[in-house]
Amino acid sequence: MSGASIPLQIVHLQAAPLTHTQRIQRLYRQSLRLTADWYWERPEQRQKALIIREHFEANRHVTSPQEKEALIEVTEVLLAKYHHPVPFKYATAPGGTKWERNTPFPEELLDKFVPFDNST
Questions:
Q1: pLDDT value at position 108?
Q2: How far apart are CA 36 and CA 84, in angstroms?
Q3: What is the mean pLDDT of the chain?
Q4: Which of 94, 92, 87 is closest to 30 using CA atoms?
Q5: How far apart are CA 25 and CA 56, in angstroms?
Q6: DSSP secondary-structure letter at 19?
Q7: Nearest CA to 36 among 70, 94, 82?
Q8: Cα–Cα distance between 48 and 75 in angstroms, integer?
Q9: For residue 33, what pLDDT is reported?
């Protein structure tokens, strides 16, 4: 290796801005999850999901960027307004009732473990 040193460059990881389609898809998914939080029975969820889909489809052909942004803001406000106080979480998901219930014993401590000898 030569004596010349290569300067270390720090690369900042920045999340790419979301496209309009990604924003809409995320809002749609959030609204469906919110529906699942409020309505436990599947037929009710399906009925509300159809209404939500109808609202999204009605605004599908909006072309003005200002109108699009206004619709997105209205949707975000509605999602915040109807946010469930105790959203559904799967039992094994972080924050669920079974999260980290039976964590495996650390391997590095297994080598140091000395069983008690009760025979003496």
A1: 76
A2: 10
A3: 84
A4: 87
A5: 10
A6: P
A7: 82
A8: 15
A9: 93
Write out the H or E segment, with its range, that includes residue 107: helix 107-110
Q: What is the dihedral of CA 111, 113, 117, 118, to 10 degrees?
A: -150
Give the DSSP letter string of 45-81: HHHHHHHHHHHHHHTTT---HHHHHHHHHHHHHHHHH
Give the contacts of 62 (CB within 8 A, at least 6 positions apart): 68, 71
Residue type, 111: D
Q: Give yes or no for a contact between 34 and 79, defined as CB atoms under 8 angstroms apart.
A: yes
Whole-angstrom distance, CA of residue 86 vs CA of residue 96: 11
Instruction: Identify the residue with better confidence: 97 or 27.
Output: 27
Cα-atom radius of gyration of the chain, to the nearest Å?
26
Predicted TM-score (pTM) of this structure: 0.68
Task: Compute the distance between CA of residue 62 and CA of residue 15 in angstroms, rounded to an integer.
Answer: 27
**41-73 pLDDT, tens per residue?**
999 999 999 999 999 999 999 999 999 999 999
Residue 117 has pLDDT above 70, yes or no: no
Cβ–Cβ under 8 Å, residues 87 and 37: yes
